[in-house]
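Field reference: sequence -> structure
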Amino acid sequence: MSTPANQGDKNFPPDRIQTEPGNNPDAAQKTPFWKRSYTLTALVLGGALAAALAVGAAVGSPIAYHAGRNSEITNIVLDHARDKSEEYTSVNRKLSEAEADLRNAEKRQLELKDANEEAEATIEKAKSYQIDDLKAESEKLKKEVDEQKKTLETLTGKVETAKKNTIGDGVWQVGKDIDAGTYRATREVGSRCYWSISNPVTDDILQNDLPGGGFPEVTVSDGQQLKIANCSTFTKQ
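Structure field:
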């Protein structure tokens, strides 16, 4: 059996002594340190990886569940927010309408206040009057007015009668335009004065005259026709 050249070297570590596998039975079972460390590291890393995968599987499912749940809650919150936004808009619109109604009501209140103050002033003014004295004065004035009306009616009748009984130049139908009777000139006539009495049916002249002056008179009957020219006026006697 040969001895390696470095076997007798004291500085060479014993575990680094090379042996031939065929000559040393223990040499085949002995593993270098670096190989043993690598194997242990691989085992540790493998176990850690398996554990991580297991944890990921265990945790991933709840996370996914919670993520979906959170999405559902978010949608609910958004729907609720939209409903609140629409409700807010509706409330603001109603608030604007209420404010407008309030302004109109305040304006109307001021108008009624002014009207009320005016009415109160009128009432106070009326209270200052002597109502009984005013009533008595009113009755007195009413009587005077009634008397004046009667006088006016009388005068009106007289005027109408005077109009009917006073005639001037023209053609008059007796019994229609004027009453039958005697008519006399109201003032002295001139030389051009002319009057005539005729039958309106036959147009025959029954009587006529050119008085030439003075205060001529003429008597007519119903159904006759009287014509006057340039004689001023005649009044019924």
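Note: The helical segments are 33-127, 131-165.
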